[in-house]
Amino acid sequence: MAHELITSENGGPTPRRIADSYVQALADLDPLTAIYLGVNLDDDRLTDLSPAGSDALADLGRRTLAELDAAEAAGAADSEAERRCARLLRERLTAELAVHDAGENYVAVRNLGSPVHNVREVFTIMPTATEDDWGLIGRRLARVPQAIAQYRETLAAGIERGLLSGPRQVATVIDQIAEWLEGEVPGGWFGTFVQDAPEALRAELGATAVAATDALSELRDWLAEVYAPAAADTPDTVGRERYARFVRYWTGADLDLDEAYRWAWEQFHDLDAQMRTEAEKVLPGSTPMQAMKWLETDGPAIKGEEAVREYLQGLMDGAINDLQGTHFDLAEPLLKVESRLAPAGSAAAPYYTQPSLDFSRPGRTWLPTLGRESFPVWDLVSTWYHEGVPGHHLQLAQWTYVANKLSTYQVTLGGVSANLEGWALYAERLMDELGYLTDPGARLGYLNAQMMRALRVIVDIGMHAGLDFPADSPYRAGEPMLPDAAREFFGLYCGLSSDFLDSELVRYLGLPGQAIGYKLGERAWLQGRAAAKAAAEARGEEFDLKAWHMAALSQGSLGLDDLVAELAAL
Prior knowledge:
By secondary structure, the protein is mainly α. 62% of the residues lie in helices and 3% in strands. A three-stranded mixed sheet has the order 2-4-3. Strands 1-5 form a two-stranded antiparallel ribbon.
């Protein structure tokens, strides 16, 4: 597919058409992204993970910005819909190019969302219903060794340039790959995956899986023997300049980091007080940590992986049934969302994957089981309101549904993490406001989730920007926010497992700036709702929350620089 610019009837391009032309071209250059979009379904390639592949994507971004410049100069952004799309496209591509031009593609060793993670995880969303589907899987699986070689080429170039990931990332990824290599059948995770293939293809696919796994094994050994020694003295944190660049990428805003840090500490103290009140209801005389530990070991729990998958499916189905027509007006395709178990070796956090553009692949939530057989429910309820309904699923599936009224770009590639995660955290709060979290254990789980997001702002900004614990901190006041201290502080005030918190710390160090978008994004959504409600009341009108929700979810992606004003005007 060539980058062929789609034009309007009068022969001139518009921002929305330029944006969608960009999506088409990027899907051709980046087959992994195409799979998530549900396009180019017969393409059996994997993305070029070499430096040349990254440069080609950057060149596409620069050409697209030049086309946007010309279109705006010609007056093509002549409506609010076109102006909104143009703002988003320019901001996103500029932020992405800033990250690329700083050489961050050479530092792509991290425990979540790295190129090698994406190569593996893409197989979990490919269709598997027919023999032809498995044939396509086999052809793509045969390309895994080449993709891993390209990824290694990029990392080797990073070593030459002095651009390396920190030791914690390297050690974690080595351990993750080691887990992928394990399995009862040859070929590790890939070998287990192809066991579900039709019998006629199973032997061939099994051999292909072994070759892919051998390439992973070689990558693990190279990371341990070559990359890890080279990265041994690399700081785990990125410093304020790099951090600010990542904050723009993840939030769509140039945030005042010191203000955000102070605000997060205010949230910490408020949530700590609320959690102490709720803990007393769960276990009289206990602290929040004691109450959460009791809930984890002695509270209600679901036994077995399939049982917990069904439980989470029931939570989402029940939320859709209750909210439809009362607080949301959902089209039929949005009523289906699937609960799935995440593949072994995933990071510890649950996640959601968006439906394909034609809804042939529904939205899905994914629970990493981490080898467990018992699943306490106290912290699952609000989490699935976040990941599923009314969280990520309602926003991302609604974006998909209205793509033809906006642009494909605005509802897919142009997504701003802080907008997405802010809505999902708002969704948790909404369910609390609507009375769905009255059970003391479930509400303590919700408050703990809010505390986790406040702590993320504190430790992420504190570590990377080199800040100190403030004077009113109950822990090491006045001392620097170093990773080990941040991990200990996090564990003292967040009732999640040690393994989960260890994974979280590595995540923050590997994706600087991403974790702050949850709480800061929620703040923007709440500010926008409050302003819209105040404006309606000033006009003498009753605020229609359902109408506001649907209008807010139908405007596509926005960065935090634009979100509050746009929400206030609805």
